[in-house]
Amino acid sequence: MPSREIVTHSSEETIQFGRDLGARLKPPVLILLSGELGAGKTTLTKGIVSGAGAAHEDEVTSPTFTLVHKYGNGSRFYHVDLYRIGDSHDLETLGLEDVLSEPGVVLVEWPERLTLRTDWPVIRIDLEHVAEDVRKIVIRDDSGIFSVT
Question: 38: exposed, middle or buried (C-beta count within 10 Å: 0-12, 13-18, 19+)?
Fold first, then answer.
């Protein structure tokens, strides 16, 4: 599986890296964001969403309590946070099957709680909090959506 690893040294660098990734997205794609609390998943998402043109980065917030945010006028760009999902019944109430029924971009935080399967291309992004402002970001893209040179 092709992978790319980078290290960012500020939230601005993490957002800029996300912008670069977002500018290259073509739906449908499922992006799985893994990392501990505070690892930078939402910060990276701000960049991805703004780089794709779905919303300004200031509009992107963590969907920890609402669980799903939709961005873009008419575009299908979703940011999902499964941190508070307890079981498959909780997951069913989100309507993710509907979200995945038509091509779009879906970013999922805490993807280990996702039990739905899709034939969409999948990109896995692991974030690690290395130091106060330092993040290690590893992208695994077996779909080839991002050139990981």
Answer: exposed
Helix (H, G, I), strand (E, B) or coil at 16: helix
pLDDT tens readout for residues 74-93: 678 999 888 877 666 666 66
Q: What is the mean pLDDT of residues 13-17?
A: 96
**Angle, to 10 degrees, between the axis of helix 41-51 and the axis of helix 11-22?**
40
- Residues 6 or more apart from 27 whose CB is under 8 A from it? 76, 103, 104, 105
DSSP reduced 3-state for 88? helix
Question: Which token pair is 19?
Answer: 């912008």
What is the dihedral sign for C-alpha 75, 76, 82, 84? positive
N- to C-terminal Cα distance for the chain?
A: 13
How does DSSP assign 102-133, residue by residue? SS-EEEEESGGG-----SS-EEEEEEEE-SSS
Residue keyed to tokens 């290290």: 7
What is the distance between the alpha carbons of residues 123 and 136, in angstroms, rounded to a whole number?
A: 16
